[in-house]
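lol forgot to send this yesterday, sorry. struct tokens for the thing we talked abt
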């Protein structure tokens, strides 16, 4: 049996400054991140949660009409206990605005204006693969350097693969410093065209036909202007990556009891180990447990069939069939969990029971927090 993940101990540890919630898409990272931040605030931490969820579920759950690139104070009462001893802020990443901030901070006004107005940059900063993940790490670094909060909780982008959060920033950096970009920008560098001569002109002419002459011109102008910013761009990416490896950071891998999600979680755990990044444990969301575990699925089905044949107590027969399905679901989920824990012994696991409806307010997040801390009773049907 795997050890339990002690969420309250993690949140109460003042040495824990960053919690990163990772996992494949659709496993509940946003809700988990918000619930962790809320519970931390109610236990005395000054927490901020970053979401990159375009569905804006976090804002709704926190009772805010909207979130933007600036952390907003969340009005949270402590329930029956009164006002919480800590505080909670929340923000939703605006990757283009974050990218713009980097450019303005590390280029003179004239060069910054050239970059911001460049069509290739506008496409890169708003839709290029890997930009969202890089900007999430950039914003994490900004918040950590500000030292305005003693706990930052990160909801990673809703990527198909959990590994994208670690891989995409490096891919984006390699692209911006790659041979193709440097090759395309060469004609704009002083004297380069004269040195390379007509042969190079012939090659760039072919490239222009493939990618379009205007795009080629935009790329050349962008790289020329961006050279002054790029060194700081890469340096901060490396600094944030080291921050993720440092003491005080804790990764929480989020999954649901399904084969694909747990395989993705397993890959991520292995990657964290290879990169020497600190793993707190696994949150297994939307689990199902039978309320009468001694009644097997076979016996429940047989009893339901007997009632159906007699025509008596149709509601009881329906409940018995529901119970049988629940027992079968529980057995399947336990097998999947055991497969994960066998492959990764010693990793703490906490289960969050499935709920009859989505979380949409503070009380719902508070309930998820109690489940994470293993202080909530058995899940409802």
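and heres what i got for the seq, position by position
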């Amino acid at each position: 049996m795997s050890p339990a993940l002690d969420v309250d101990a993690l949140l109460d540890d003042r040495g824990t400054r960053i919690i990163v919630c990772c996992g494949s898409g659709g496993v509940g990272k946003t809700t988990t991140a918000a619930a962790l931040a809320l519970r931390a605030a109610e236990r005395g931490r000054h927490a901020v949660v970053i979401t990159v969820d375009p569905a804006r579920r976090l804002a709704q759950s926190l009772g805010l009409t909207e979130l933007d690139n600036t952390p907003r104070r969340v009005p949270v009462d402590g329930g029956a206990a009164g006002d919480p001893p800590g505080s909670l802020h929340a923000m939703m990443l605006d990757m283009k605005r974050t990218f713009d901030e980097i450019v303005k901070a590390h280029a003179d006004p004239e060069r910054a204006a050239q970059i911001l107005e460049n069509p290739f940059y506008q496409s890169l900063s708003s839709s290029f693969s890997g930009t969202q993940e890089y900007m999430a790490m950039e914003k994490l670094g900004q918040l950590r350097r500000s030292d305005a909060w003693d706990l930052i909780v990160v909801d990673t982008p809703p990527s198909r693969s959990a590994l994208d959060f670690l891989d995409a920033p490096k891919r984006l950096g390699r692209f911006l410093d790659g041979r193709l970009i440097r090759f395309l920008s060469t004609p704009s560098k002083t004297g380069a065209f004269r040195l390379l001569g007509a042969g190079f002109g012939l090659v760039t002419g072919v490239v222009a036909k493939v990618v379009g002459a205007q795009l080629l011109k935009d790329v050349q102008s962008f790289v020329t202007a961006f050279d002054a910013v790029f060194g700081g761009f890469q340096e901060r990416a490396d600094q944030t990556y080291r921050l993720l490896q440092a003491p005080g950071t804790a990764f929480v891998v989020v999954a649901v009891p399904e084969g694909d999600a747990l395989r993705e979680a397993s890959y991520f755990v292995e990657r964290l180990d290879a990169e020497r990044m600190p793993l707190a444990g696994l949150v297994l969301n939307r689990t199902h447990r039978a309320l009468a575990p001694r009644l097997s699925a076979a016996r429940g089905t047989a009893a339901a069939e007997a009632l159906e044949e007699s025509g008596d107590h149709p509601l009881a027969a329906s409940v018995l069939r529901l119970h049988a399905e629940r027992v079968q679901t529980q057995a399947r989920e336990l097998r999947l969990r055991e497969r994960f824990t066998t492959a990764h012994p010693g990793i703490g696991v906490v289960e969050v029971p499935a709920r009859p409806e989505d979380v949409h307010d503070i009380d719902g997040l508070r309930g998820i927090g109690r489940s994470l801390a293993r202080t909530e009773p058995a899940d409802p049907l």
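The domain at 7-177+228-291+347-372 is CATH 3.40.50.300 (Rossmann fold). anyway ping me if u want another try
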